[in-house]
Amino acid sequence: MSNRGMSAGMLAEQAKQQFFEFDLFELQLDSGTVYLNNTNHNILFDGNTFQGKSDYITHSPIEENVELIVSKTTLTLSGVNRAFVSAALLESLLNRTVIIYQGVWDSSYAVVANPIIQFEGDIDSANVQDSLENGTQVNIVASNFWSDSRSKPGRRTNHENQKIFFPLDAGLSYASEIKKDIPWGRR
Fold this sequence. Notes:
By secondary structure, the protein is an alpha+beta fold.
C-alpha cells in the first residue's frame, strides 16, 4: 500500500506491529449503488454502509505507475445473492463506475481516518460463472479513467467534440490556438 495521500492517523497505525487493512468496493449501477467490503463486519464510511463479504469478494492486484497508462483490476464476487446475479445478467454494467478504497482499522474495529481511493474506473466487462466447486461467481473487469482516451475510436480532443459530451465545458475552447505539442503519457 503506497503511503501517498494517507492521513497521519493511517501512517501511525501502519507503523504499529499489527494493523488491519480492508478494502471498500463501491459499484455505481443503474439499479442503485452497491457497497461491499472484504471483512466480516459492516463498515460505515462517507454516510454509506459497506456490507461485509469477507470470503466473497476479492480483486486482482492494482499496479501504480508513473506513466499515464491504463490500469485494470478484476473484481470477483462469489456467493452473491440472486438479486445481484440478476443485475449482472440483465443490467448493462458496461461503463458503470467502480471505486475501491483502502483503509486500516485498529484492534477494536474502529476505522482509522478516512480510507483512500486505491482505484477508480469504469467496468469493461462482466460475466457470471456457475460451477459445482465455486458456486456462482460474478467477475467484473474495470479499467481506470485513462482507458477512455484510447478506447473511443473517432473521438477527438477539440472544442466541438467536447461540447457533444459536456455542453457547459469550455476547457478546450482555446486548444486550437496552442502551437506547441505537449507530450504526455506513453512514448
